[in-house]
Amino acid sequence: MAAPTQAEPEPPAAAPPQKDRSYTLARIIFRWSFIGVLTVFAFWDSFGSLVETTRGSGLNGYIWIIPTAAILAAQGVARQPRTELPIHDRQTDIILGTMGLVFALLLHGVLLQRYALHFHLLRLDFLALWVFVLSSAIILFGLRPVSRFVWVWALAAMIFALPYHIMVILLGGNRIAAGAATLVIAATATGIAVSRSSRRGWIGYFSAYVVGFVLLAIMAWWTPYAPVWVYQAVPALLSTAIVGLAMFLIARRGAPKRPMDRKVEPLAAGQIVRALPLVLVVAILLSLVKLPAWTSPPAPQFNGLQISGPLNPPAGFHVADTEIYPWVQRLYGRISYLTRQQMVADAGNPEWDKDAKPRTVMVDNVITDRPFSFNVYPTKVLYDATATRLSTPRRIDLGYGVTGEMVSVVDDHLMVTWNMLQWMWRNSDRAQRIVLITVDNHEDSAPFPEPNGALLPTLSTLLTVLFRGNSAVNDDNPTFKDVDLLTTFGRGMVAAQLQPLGRLQ
């Protein structure tokens, strides 16, 4: 009986030809380069504004970290086995991608102007950028490949600035708080990058926090006055790089350490020629949108001006009460505080009150060593503006090259109308915002708006503007009852601060 013949082993699966791999990589690079170039073109003004924000020690400098963190997270996901089904519906890609591009246009072209006053607090232009990149990727790569990186896209959504600002405020508002809040981005990126399993992902997540806080503590000890952006970038990026590299080397013990050794899958969206013009046209339309212009008068600089809190009262007024609010450090930085002074006229004036009662002017002033923060948190953030309607500002010449802005505010909560005159100036180290407030109730017990750091009411106002428009918070028929009083008082206040410097009007 003949011995059974042994079955020949099956030959190993052939590796994809090097030519196919290189061709696929070239197509991936071309598509991402196309998206990247159009993104920079469409949001060129936004990037220029972000440069100025970073140079001014604004908190939004953290946005520069988002692309690097997203790339590090994406390369970790790309190295994991591909699990999505090879099902592809090009029509669905175009429909969803087009809807996203339209939404990006609405964000950038409509809501951006509606929230002009809170431009630096929200940075809706960068949220529109995120929507544009996501929608373009769906059109050029397909929905299923994009959804594979869903956690990376969620990480990139942290480009929306409002949650970051709230986190920094809750942590204290200083440089260390800014760095600690950025560690959330670093830890999330690390956890996504190393998450071949749920356990590895959580280990990477918490390890990035540990390393990041150690680096942050070292910086707080050795470089306490380093720029805000350094506190944001160095601990975050270094912790992600250190933990990610360490876990990569540990997982590859005894194995080749080549980072790009995985199989390159063919692109799901084979033909994109017809989709390229759509993305290009939307990018051109986005580039035509102008960012909200800063309309407030510039802050003049007076070297030698003592910016230390309490102000000298103008001639004819005296200080009746003084109160200091240190909580503004959460908004304007560690070297900042709010001083409220109640200034009362020495004698009555029938032009300011029909019974010639001595008028009261409430003087609030905030000092900070981070002048750009005044752009991020406007004056109304200091007060509960939920039930208020503001007029269009009027400019008032206060002498010495100082220009103030006066607004009328209808306060449905206090049941009064108050007039407010404000201006800013600075010396070589600090900036100061001065706010003068009068109310149409001239009694001694008249209610004045109280500084309370009303961030939650501010969020409520933002939602009101979203659903009802600016008409819900604007006063189209203002009443400036105290324009003469505030103009006289403001000019006297400016003179009282600058005359000791030997300044001539």
From TrEMBL:
User: Per its UniProt entry, which superkingdom is the organism in?
Assistant: Bacteria
Keywords annotated in UniProt: Membrane, Transmembrane, Transmembrane helix
Which residue windows are transmembrane per the record? 28-47, 59-78, 94-112, 124-143, 150-170, 176-195, 202-222, 228-251, 272-294
Name the UniProt record assigns to this protein: Uncharacterized protein
Record the organism.
Mycolicibacterium rutilum (Mycobacterium rutilum)
